[in-house]
Amino acid sequence: MAQQQLHKLMRAAANGDRSAFHAIYNATSAKLFGVAVRILKRRDLAEDVMQDAYLKIWDAAPKYRPEAGSPISWMVAITRNRAIDVLRKRTEVAVEDEKDGGDRADDAPDPFELTAQSGELKALLGCMEKLNPDQRQCLLMAYYYGYTHEEISQRMTTPIGTVKSWIRRGLIQVKECLGND
Amino acid sequence: MTKRDLDILASEYALGILDAAERTKAEKLRAGDAAFARMIDEWNQRLAPLAEAIEPVSPPASAWSRIEAALTSTAAASSQPLAELAGQLAQMKRTIAAWRFATMATATAAIALAVIWMGGLESPFRGAPPAERYVAMLQSDKGETGFVITIDMNGKQLAIRPVGGNAPSSKSYELWAIMKDDKPPMTLGLVGTSAYAMMDTPVEIDEKELEKGVQLAISLEPEGGARSGKSMGPVMFAGLLIKQTP
After folding, report:
1. What's this model's pTM, rounded to 2 decimal places?
2. Which residues in B32-185 belong to E strands, given as ranges?
């Protein structure tokens, strides 16, 4: 769906138009569900998260401002944030019960391999390419798996302090690079 | 924290790398600091393109009807997460304004109803002078009454009487007290399904707070209540606690 149309639907939903909200759902739910499944790796949890996210989107629609990003980016951020909340609460209970083996993607998505990249993604990846490979990998692992510093430190067998500073410096570099476009 | 430290925290929060305790800290900060909230938005925007590489997955066909049902039950504007609600009470947002209006319009009715109810059933509160009792009629933003709540400040007991329906299956209703000041909402416990119940634990609301005005609210939470003691769910019913007798 074109961004412009999504903007129009958002405005209608902000005014309480449920059919507009249903149209938004139809246009975006596979993406949001994909994001939730990606982080949580379980469809049942992902469905709860997606539901919470849409309720939040419905509520916050009047506060949505186009200058804060495209509607889909905004919705993805809400969903991903909620998914990470749930993930954090579950880490004490080891997530061993993944029923949907197919969702257990051991290979993180690789945005660099994506054939159709938006201008924004191209710009972001252009900046990420300037980071050292470890920094880049940390950022991607954090984004696609929702890992904490500690989890990344274990997976990369690197001290946590090093991981922290890689990520901090990486994010700062990315921001500076994007700002200098 | 310097602006730079805040921006780093915002970036880590948006990336999603913080652990549970650090996230809670960042969320508290976000609720009270508009500049920090904006930094998070900006970071979300910077990182958002990465989601292009995430494969879409079709949700089950039943997902929309669940969402639609939740929209219906929360009605147009009532489903503010409680955490946000608390900070906004003073601003008389439209939802709250509607509640306030409903609360005022029905305050008299609430007293009448509570009195009738307490007269009709044997009073659960023994020996408490009426002046120590507070009542609240919790309504949806449509004005439907969901619960009548009575608090006996002598025994610190809270009695809850559902008038509307129970929470949908696999969800729980949770009762919260929202103080006038910017304090975080305080949970008073889960609402059971019985037609009349006393809360197990004593109510620890300060009398001074009650005089200033305390709102009670019932939110819809995942089964078992809000995780981490912080409401995530939509507010379904709310109402002001008032003294039963002036």
Report:
1. 0.60
2. 133-139, 145-152, 157-162, 171-178
